Amino acid sequence: xxxxxxxxxMSTLFAVPAAESAQGLRVIRSESSEQTDLALxxxxxxxxxxxxxxxxxxxxxxxxxxxxxxxGKMRAETARFRVxxxxxxxxxxxxxxxxxxxxPQNILEKFLGKKITLIKTHPTNGTESFxxxxxxxxxxxxVLKTKDRIETGLSGRFAFPELPAGLxxxxxxxxxxxxxxxxxxxVELDYLSDGVTWRADYIAELNAEENxxxxxxxxxxxxxxxxxxxxxxxxxxxxxxxVVGDKFARNRSAKVYTQAMAMDSYSASETPAxxxxxxxxxxxxxxxxxxxxxxxxxxxxITLLQSPEVESRKEIVFxxxxxxxxxxxxxxxxxxxxxxxxxxxxPELGVPVAGGVFLVFENDKDxxxxxxxxxGIVRVYKKDxxxxxxxxxxxxxxxxxxxxxxxxxxxxxxxxxxxRKMTSFKNLPSVGWMKKTIRQTESGFRIxxxxxxxxxxxxxxxxxxxxxxxxxxxNRKHRxxxxxxxxxxxxxxxxxxxxLDFRVQVALRR
Length: 510
What we know:
Layout: E1 4-8, H1 10-13, E2 26-30, E3 35-43, E4 47-58, E5 61-68, E6 80-82, E7 90-98, H2 104-110, E8 115-121, E9 128-137, E10 143-145, E11 150-151, E12 156-160, E13 172-179, E14 183-194, E15 196-206, E16 212-223, E17 229-238, H3 246-254, E18 261-263, E19 276-280, E20 283-287, E21 292-294, E22 298-320, H4 346-349, E23 351-352, E24 355-362, E25 376-383, E26 389-397, E27 405-411, E28 416-427, E29 437-451, E30 457-464, E31 468-474, E32 479-482, E33 485-492, E34 496-509
Parallel strand pairs: 1-12, 2-5, 3-17, 15-25, 18-22, 22-30
Antiparallel strand pairs: 3-4, 4-14, 5-13, 6-14, 7-13, 8-9, 8-12, 9-10, 10-11, 15-16, 16-22, 17-20, 17-21, 19-20, 22-24, 23-28, 24-27, 25-26, 28-29, 29-34, 30-33, 31-34, 32-33
């Protein structure tokens, strides 16, 4: 593989910056060491609000102020520069984001059409040869013109006489200012930046009795802005904040590659302070109670909440939906094998009913949470007989305000099953006068539940019904969960089975 080295004279790289800008103005440079405060508010859409406070010594008259160590993905149009104590004394005439950074590619592009030195090393004796060449092209490969030929696919080194003007070692916000006074002032710089994202992740450990959960909430923060933010006050905004061009921003921020991983750690005797959650406009804001470093190319995790004993319960829910209650023909599609053929036992035993296992808890103070939960993935664990935590499922929860229920789907039960079978069907005569009945039927169903576990299992069965419906007979009492759903709650004995029989009348009216 051919390698290319770029050489710039040491005197060029380490030269003291000029005291004047390209416009002939005095240059005032401000580095991050002059910061007096730094705060980040990170949004869930991949943007951050940066508030940078510094002390800067101004000269009277016009100057070029260069503020270094700003985000490399600053939205320049959002930058707001203020001098609170001398608002009328310092006027910003123009501002520019200088993000053309020093790199081999950028140096070559700046020398397009200019002369450089091509240095080659003899493969056997190691002697170096020097040749002057003109840069003809840089994109899709370097093309050079020497005295008697055109060269591509080069190996060797390039030497440049100087560092091109306009290239910087770090992103810089450059302002032309006019100050009425000379002296030190505290300034404020606020701006929006891409490249800083956060998400919530949760770890839930279910106890042996399956009635309590140890819940830990973590903030996973990723900084791909190209700049490190040190000793920063951190706040997080949860909610859907609309921005113009949000689709583009999401696509761009999604293409990040983690190069470092950090985790805020605590001793065994130390409990991390939970983030303070406040309602802010139509969103929720979480304030991390301590300052932290958010380094460039770093993924950091910070504890958001710790709730060691959340009152919770396991729910096994079977739901039957999408059936035609106006036909005696049963649907065996859910009992089909890989070739689409109905299973041989389906007519006799019934169709398997889709079921799920859920971990459920209330987000309130009685359950020992009472904190608005930002959207994120909950990963659930439970210790086995030997005391080793095993992963038992994960689910994504949406933004959940205080007082709402959290339902985490973990998967399907291996040992608890349900099958649904139609036991009767008949058409009923149309009735009604003002509201005409188009069709009315009565259907009977038997649902058989089996439990292979050594302990009894509580479960819910839900039948989703269309049209106007009424349960006319049942061996277990139902409750109307919603306009189109009936629910039965029951307990299946250990290593046993239980049946639910009901008849329902369904009418289609107009």
